[in-house]
Amino acid sequence: MDDSKLGTRDKRGNWAPNTALKVAPLYQFPLKFGEIIKWLPNFFLPWNLFFAVSAVAYWAWIVPPVETMQNIAWGWVLKLWLVNVVAVILFYGAFEVRLYIQRAQENRFKYNHKFPADTPSDVFWFGSQNMDNFARGMLSGVPIWTGTQVIVFWAYANGYVPWIRFAENPVYLVILTLLVPFIHEVHFFCIHRLIHIPFLYKHVHSVHHNSINVSPWSSLSMHPVEHLLYFATMLWHLIIPSNPVIALYHLHAAGFGAISGHVGFDRIEVGKNRAIDPHSYTHYLHHKYFEVNYSDGLVPLDKMFGSWHDGTKEADECMKERFRKTRARVNAAKKRQTPVV
Ligand SMILES: [Zn+2]
Ligand SMILES: [Zn+2]
């Protein structure tokens, strides 16, 4: 496909889309129904529908009987862990193989013209971003993902939290399912904003930000503390009356959903003239500029707190102005603390 129709490439070869990013059109009054209807397919496709299907399939074929989950035992816990390992390797690996190993679409629609494998760096374990990112996802990402899942299933199995059946209250559960991406977005914004506090950034979140030029394995490359906070998004179902399948959908939206911000391409080509929009630019800009887009725009939290970057030159200027003001404030505070001799 010709990527010059949808974006522009700078002198270095980095590609950026021509259209500005938008937050979900749900927060303007009066509501513009035309815009909402146009946006709806993006809400469901490609990701949310996929996570809902994967959650139902996982519940049907993988999750053990409820009586088994009443007691935490190695057998079923290890089975879930192993399935999650395989699922992560297959899911993220598919994007990695197609886009970064085979380089099937070369750098068409690729934001950063370089490929991580071509730029070894000492900030990463083994000097390799790919190996570092993969190892971190496997060593702490999947175990903490599985641990969170086990706690929630065990709580449901023992009746420690309300389990609403679909036959009992289908309308409520459908509404809750639709709200899951919004709950996850607010959760992610809050924990993400928290780990950008300088102390936590230095000791925790910098691990994730080492990958400036993201690739699929970067999705789950985090410090274990960040993994704990990130997967804790599923724990909302211990507070909100819910159903374990919806909780699982929420977990998949977090665990697999991280791909959307880290695929590194604006479009994934499928065939000669078709491409899927993985909605990756918002979070790509976060990796590029660090202090913008703490969430993805489904809930306009970045807009409210002045950290929204829609990819335009105007947003760039606003961001630089914000950085200048912050620097001036920090310098003024430093000056006040320096004793006059
Ligand atoms: Zn990221
Ligand atoms: Zn961050």
What is the compact description of this entry?
With 341 residues, the protein is mainly alpha-helical.
> Which stretches of 5+ consecutive residues score pLDDT under 50?
none
Distance between the termini: 66 Å
* Associated small molecules: zinc ion
Main sheet makeup: 2 strands, antiparallel
Helix content: 40-55%
- For the largest sheet, list the strands in their spatial order: 1-2
Task: Give the H and E element order.
Answer: EEHHHHHHHHHEEHHH
For the CA atoms, what is the radius of gyration?
Answer: 21 Å
What is the structural class?
mainly alpha
Strand percent estimate: under 5%
Our count of domains comes out at: 1
Query: What's the rounded overall pLDDT mean?
Result: 96
Number of strands: 4
Annotation field: number of helices: 12
What's the overall geometry?
Answer: globular
Q: Which terms summarize this structure?
A:
mainly alpha, two-stranded antiparallel ribbon, two-stranded antiparallel sheet, 12 helices, 4 strands, binds zinc ion
What does this structure look like?
Helices cover 54% and strands 3% of the residues. It is mainly α. It has one domain. The strands form two sheets. It has a two-stranded antiparallel sheet. β1 and β2 form a beta hairpin. The chain is globular. The model has no long low-confidence stretch (mean pLDDT 96). One zinc ion binds at residues 192, 196, 205, 209, 286.
What is the element layout, followed by pairings?
Layout (H helix, E strand, L loop, with lengths): L6 E3 L5 E3 L15 H12 L2 H15 L12 H28 L27 H29 L12 H25 L3 H12 L14 H8 L12 H12 L3 H4 L5 E2 L5 E2 L4 H9 L11 H4 L8 H25 L4
Antiparallel strand pairs: 1-2, 3-4
Bound molecules: zinc ion (2 copies).
